[in-house]
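Backbone shape codes
____________________
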Amino acid sequence: MEESDEDGEDNEEFLERLMAQTGREMPQHELEEHYAVLEELGSGTYGRVVLTEPLDGGPPVVLKLMLKERTEWQAFLREYCIALCLSSHAACLRALPVAFESTTHFAFGQELAPAGDLCALLNPGEGLAEELVKRCASQLAEALDFMHSRALVHRDVKLDNVLLFDRECRRVKLGDFGLTRVQGSAVGAMTGTLPYSPPELCLLQGSDTLELDSSLDAWAFAILLFCLCTGCFPWAMAASSDPQFEDFSAWQGGTTGRGVPASWRGFSSGALEMLRRLLTLDPDRRSPAIEVQKYLSLPWV
């Protein structure tokens, strides 16, 4: 839609202005000059997330420390500014007005999720209780709807990026906005999150790109819900070379004689309808994430 395209341009322009202003005001100091590291909460190729205590007093602060050698200045500013913009929503992890540059890292503060992430709750091959899954589904659907209404696409919806404030999932938040981009941006093939990637993204090769759309998040959201219900992924990759995806694709497409694939038979008819709509092969016909709310009153398994 033309209106959405214009909104996307407005959002991109606003984000660029916010990034420029934030960059001009960024203080420079070393971590140990202001914080004592209490605990490492996570790490990756980007750097690490640590729980710290400010040396001048005050409550503990979670800092995301991003290695300069692996992080471009603009990428850091984009992630931090997007996180700030989304912090007003109850289901988006809140960024703190704390950011600085050290000799080796870019850093910004975020709220502590004391119960870890969704991976910590799941055992392989064992789904969560339906009540917990629905609590997660409702809150994440609202977080994604909030992002999409602002022409932002998360691009990395997965178990690791859903943070817990209690182990009963009464309060969960979507985090890690490092890959988030404005809708309509050109994106290429991704590595590392293939089980969550829709077929249109898996088909990209080399320098191929596609226009970013919120339907990508809807697909990943459905895969996440499948994982929460079953404790496993439905397939390794949404491509014809994957037999489990090929079975699903044939069933989804209504191929004569193809019944419900084995790994999907534990779902109720209502849950199957919901997941099939989120996993529509044609991204233009894929249901938005918020539609999950319509199915919360139905049994899922």
In short: Confidence is low (pLDDT under 50) at residues 1-8. The chain is about 35% helix and 15% strand. Residues 2-24 form the longest helix (23 residues). The radius of gyration is 20 Å.
